[in-house]
Specification:
The chain is of the alpha+beta class. The chain has a four-stranded antiparallel β-sheet. Strands 2-7-4-5 form a four-stranded antiparallel β-sheet. Strand 10 and strand 11 form a beta hairpin. The protein is globular, with a radius of gyration of 18 Å. The two termini are 33 Å apart.
Length: 246
Amino acid sequence: MVAMSNHFVQKLKNLAELDSADTDAISALTSRPRDYASKQDVIREGDRPGPVFVILKGWACRYKILPSGSRQIMAFLLPGDCCDLHVGMLAAMDHNLQALTLCEVALIPGDRMEALLEDHPAVARAMYKSQLIDEGILRAWIVSMGRRNSVERVAHLMCELYLRSFSINSLNEIAFPISQIVLADALGMTPVHVNRILKELRLVGAVTIHRGNLLITDPLKLVQIAGFDENYLHRRKAVAFSRELV
């Protein structure tokens, strides 16, 4: 029987019809996770790629460091997310992967992942769909960085992170364990600017952030501010964002 705490299993089951053999195989490969402390790199740019990383608990991020020393975060990784399915084909990592909170990360050797995909076609379909969704999220981030103003950018990211977290926990108030500095690095802003926008969103009654938790107090208002359309997340059981949050 699959433990319900395995968010990787839950995520893949939302992307394809998996039988007990499929879920048992996934559980076996992720049964011995490794702990990573907050701000600890899981793998660094220039390192030789090795296993496939699966986030089971905690939040992590992909990032790059510029010559100036500034950091650009390119993705947030939540429980159930799989990192770099085929990265083992490359000679070296071209970005860093870091735990933002205490994380449990399963390290799946490349050959065992290949065997899983070959022996379990439904798992392969779910994994490939997950990878396509990751690419959709990256496209949405590019649009935000290039065309959304700063308030829209913050609101859009909050909508996205909320829906991704809601898919894991189905709670109206979600953990939001990222600092304003981390948000700034993801949004291409300064922490001071992020702080000002968060105050603005709070004053208009759209969101409340308190002690590491995010509560979207007015879903429709936040969606309107962001111009948010969840189609790029390709959730299997699509529900109107405003309905799901009430």
